[in-house]
């Protein structure tokens, strides 16, 4: 007697979106890391930018070192050594460079057409943009930390020759160093958001510079509190009037530390949300 094996039903082949293998977050982060560093502008802007800012801190500190004997009692009483670590000019340069890197990280993909390949391979656009924001923000946070600690170390080493240098444990120093470091990823993510909206290199860089650096420089405290509240919503203004100072002044016309940290948190968050929404709703 012959036996016949029961025919086993064959499972239908998967079809549709569920058939596509889900790319792991690690793979997305690795891809965005490679794309970011494949841009030569990233290496040049970050490398030269960091060296330039540290050199400016050294030069400013040396100038103060030489002229310190000529300072009067009032000037010495109001002198803040942290202003030598990162001056307003250096911060402007730092924010412009960071915003440019953030904008180019996405505009470059549109210019080269690589964005089509990326979104074809990973149709979940929100995951792609979230990974890009994470890589850009993480890299720029590392750069900001190097700049913050590097400028502090150089400037205070020079100023200590006059007995006016600070150490990491002095009151207010950690807060200022944190604010100095966070300006870099904040600017980069804002540049990323503007780049996603405009998708044009020159327009994105110019707009980011205008919003982050140029416009806030024209603001100053006024008698209108609504205007002061509006000014305080710009990161550069909040940094300059509050977070960059060892002992921020407490006046209704000036930003508060709490409000300034909130501004530092909201700008990159809104920029990432805008990036995700714009890329999801647009055709490539």
Summarize the structure.
This protein is 71% helix and 0% strand. The chain has 284 residues and is mainly α.
Task: Explain what the structure shows.
This is ABC transporter permease subunit. The longest helix is centred in the middle third of the chain and has 35 residues. The N terminus is likely disordered. By secondary structure, the chain is mostly helical. Helix 8 crosses helix 9. It is globular and about 65 Å long. The protein starts with 24 loop residues before the first helix and ends with a helix. 38% of the residues are buried.
What is the topological layout?
Elements: H1 25-38, H2 40-67, H3 73-77, H4 82-85, H5 88-112, H6 114-121, H7 125-159, H8 173-198, H9 201-217, H10 225-231, H11 235-243, H12 257-281
Helix pairs in contact: 1-7, 2-5, 2-7, 5-8, 5-9, 7-8, 7-12, 8-9, 8-11, 8-12, 11-12
Distance between the termini: 66 Å
Based on CA inertia axes, which overall geometry fits? globular
Overall pLDDT level = 89
Biggest sheet character: none
Annotation field: number of helices: 12
Could you name the ranges where pLDDT drops below 50 across 5 or more consecutive residues?
1-11, 13-20
Radius of gyration: 24 Å
**Helix and strand succession?**
HHHHHHHHHHHH
Estimate the helix proportion, in percent.
over 70%
Helix/strand class = mainly alpha
Q: Could you tell me the number of beta strands? A: 0
* SS strand fraction: under 5%
């Amino acid at each position: 007697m012959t036996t016949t094996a029961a025919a086993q039903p064959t499972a239908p082949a998967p079809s549709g979106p569920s058939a596509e293998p889900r790319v792991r977050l690690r793979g997305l982060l690795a891809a965005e890391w490679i794309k970011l560093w494949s841009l030569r502008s990233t290496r040049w802007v970050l490398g030269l930018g960091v060296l330039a800012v540290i050199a400016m801190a050294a030069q400013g500190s040396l100038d103060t070192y030489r002229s310190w004997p000529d300072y009067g009692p009032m000037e010495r009483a109001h002198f803040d050594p942290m202003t030598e670590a990162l001056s307003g000019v250096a911060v402007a340069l730092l924010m412009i460079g960071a915003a440019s890197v953030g904008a180019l990280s996405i505009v470059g993909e549109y210019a080269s057409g690589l964005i089509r390949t990326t979104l074809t391979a990973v149709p979940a656009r929100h995951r792609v943009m979230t990974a890009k924001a994470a890589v850009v923000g993480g890299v720029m946070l590392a750069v900001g930390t190097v700049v913050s600690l590097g400028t502090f170390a150089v400037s205070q080493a020079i100023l200590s020759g006059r007995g006016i240098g600070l150490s990491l444990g002095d009151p207010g120093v950690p807060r200022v160093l944190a604010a100095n470091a966070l300006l870099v990823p904040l600017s980069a993510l804002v540049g990323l958001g503007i780049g996603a909206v405009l998708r044009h290199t020159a327009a994105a860089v110019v707009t980011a510079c205008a919003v982050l650096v140029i416009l806030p420089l024209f603001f100053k405290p006024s008698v209108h509190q609504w205007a002061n509240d509006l000014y305080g919503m710009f990161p550069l203004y909040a940094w300059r009037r509050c977070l960059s100072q060892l002992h921020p002044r407490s006046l209704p016309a000036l930003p508060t530390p709490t409000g300034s940290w909130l501004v530092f948190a909201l700008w990159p968050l809104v920029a990432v949300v805008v990036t995700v929404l714009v890329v999801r709703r647009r055709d490539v």
